[in-house]
Amino acid sequence: MELKKTFALSFFILLAFAALAASQVNPTSTSPSLSDAWQIGGTYDWMGFALLAVLACFFFVSLVYMASVIIQNDTLKRWAQGELLQAVASGFLVIFLIAIISTVVFQSICLTQPDLCSSGAVTRENTLSGVSPYTPVHDKINKAKIRIEMLYMQVLAANAPIEAAEHSCVIFFGVEMYCGWDLHPTVERAHFINWKLSELQIVMDAELTLIEIVQNSMLNILLPLGIILRILPLTRGIGGLLIAIAIGFYIVYPVFFMVSTFNLTTVAQIGSASTLLGFNPNEACYGDVGGADRLLKKGFEQANAVNPLYTRIGADIPMLYMEYVIQPFIILAITIMFVRAATPILGGDSTYLIQGVSKLV
Questions:
Q1: pLDDT per residue over 296-335, tens digit each?
Q2: Residue (of 121, 164, 116) closest to 136 by Cα position
Q3: Which of 133, 163, 164, 226 sits a CA distance of 20 to 30 A from 108?
Q4: Nearest to 62 by CA among 75, 74, 51, 76
């Protein structure tokens, strides 16, 4: 038990060191650095390190096998034979992962963004050093975020004269003759819509941040560490788990996101916020003694005109929540199921994953 804790602690120290090294990138430096070794297309590729680890494992196991033959230890000999087969499997695994990741990433990009493939901007040779599967996901969320910002400004501009009229009164010799309090439900409806739109913007900003983290860490840190730890006998379980996590979150998640995400909301061309519904911001101020009367009149006219607008935007909000809040969690569950199924195939131990998910839940 203590041995497992020691290896787990060593792994997390190695992971933190690798993450720190990958973050210390100096683009102006011409000398090789440790961060270049983990960056795809850098001075030294992680693929070369993985193959070098396979050869080192071959060399070590061969020495152990020869020693077992010399001392005639059958137990050590059987162990060396088993580890030799594992080293062969690890070698094939490295080559297979390099090929499959390049192919799957290329095909997913061509499926979601065919213009990049038809123009020759993305090829099988430059896939691993260029565009990632998260590029179309990032673009899709960015477009939706821009649309939500425009909807927010549209509601804000439409509500401005109504809210001004709500707080205006016609007073005759100190006596309130009439106020715009009847407009309060319409104003609060606009506040509620923009509140929900603000929540969606916050969620999308968080999703874009997580995409950047996953995009920059899975293929550059977790996959190289997983392959190298998978080669070593004592860290084979955690290595297989890291490989499954890297493949699941770098390939399975973005591909499922683009394939299963449909345009549930209509994309409408929205004009400038200051010209929506014939609203002039300058008319929201009192020009003379008749300003309150004109402001109230403008507010009630606007209140009658915005009902269809608020109804349309209000109908879009649940679809946006389903598309960009609920659906990513469903795809996350699918990705975790893939990682759990792929971990034993890659020689890993899914117990760590189950324990982590149970603690997270």
A1: 666 666 667 777 878 888 888 888 888 888 888 888 888 8
A2: 116
A3: 226
A4: 76
